Structures are given as C-alpha cells and as structure tokens.
Structure prediction request, 205 residues.
Amino acid sequence: MARRGAYAKGVAKREEILTAALEVIAREGYGRASVRELAEAVGLSQAGLLHYFGTKEELFAAVLRKRDETDLQRVEERMGEVSTFEGFRQTIDRNADVPGLIQLYVRLSAEATDPAHPAHAFFAERTRTFRDIVAVDIRRMQAEGTVRADVDAERAAMLILAAADGLQVQWLMDPTVDMATHVSALLRLLEPAGSPAAPSPPAEA
Prediction:
C-alpha cells in the first residue's frame, strides 16, 4: 500500500512539474527556461526535477506531450460544435499565443531526427498518432461528403502535419505570418467544389 501511495505522489508531482513547465516556457521562451528555473517553480533542485524524467530532453518531450493532451482534450470537448478541421485551425491559432512552446517544438523536433536522441521516440509516435487520427477523420468526412472523395486520407494527414510544422518555423522567422489563415487555405483544398466558404478568423482588437 505504501508503494502505491508513493507512486501516486510521484505521478501527481510529475503532473505538477509539467503544468508549471508549460507556463514557464510559454512565458519565458524555450531559450530562457532553464532546468533550474523549472525546478524552482515546483520547489525542487535540478537533480530532483530530473529524477522524474531522466534527462532535460525527456522532460521537454513530456512537456510537449502534455501540451498535445491539453489541445486534444479541448478539441474533444467541442466535438459537435465545430468541425474537425475547424478545431485544428483553432489549435494552430492558439499556438501564436505561446511562442516559447513553438520554439521548444521546432528546436526539439529538429534535434530528435537523430534516432539516438532521447525525444526521437516521442516525435515518431506523435507523427504516427496524428496521421492515424486525422486520416480516420478525413475518411469519416469523405463519407459525409465534406471532403473530396479523391483525396488520399493518409497522404493528406501527413501533408497537413508538414504544413503546420513548416508554418511554425516561418512564424518564428516572421511573426506577421498568420498560421491559422494559411492552414485554413490548405484545408479548403480538401473540400468538394461548391462548398460554402469557411468563416474568417475574428479580427484582433
């Protein structure tokens, strides 16, 4: 029973660390969010923090996984209110509010192309999961008549992910790039001819 209690406390502390890390990185940026700062945010030493994750790279991969889970939960909560594509567009739009997390994703994903990198497995799994989920949604929308029947679902899913990743790089280079608008333009290409125009994102005040 004591071991189970210790495990539960460990899981809770890990979640606390990830929640704090999301906030710190989003606010300070990936380059300025040191392990020491993240540790101080949850009252741990650097060694104590890494005890829960192993390495800095594994910690940052876990932060990105937590962000994905939060984004997916938000989309699932609105299923029925917005389309799958609109939910994805809104997620891309929100990314512009957390530049530090975009910096983390872009840098870590590039480093993780090395199979020996601690975060390689995370990004490989993320790509497969995204492709599978989106491909299933595309086939469902094809059955509903909201996506062109001649679209290859798996290929389209991969192109959507590639576009989103590439736009994040372009946005870091030039913050005037409107990622959500460009993603919307890509998704419109998948719709049957004659579909009503998608609503434009609300103008910023």
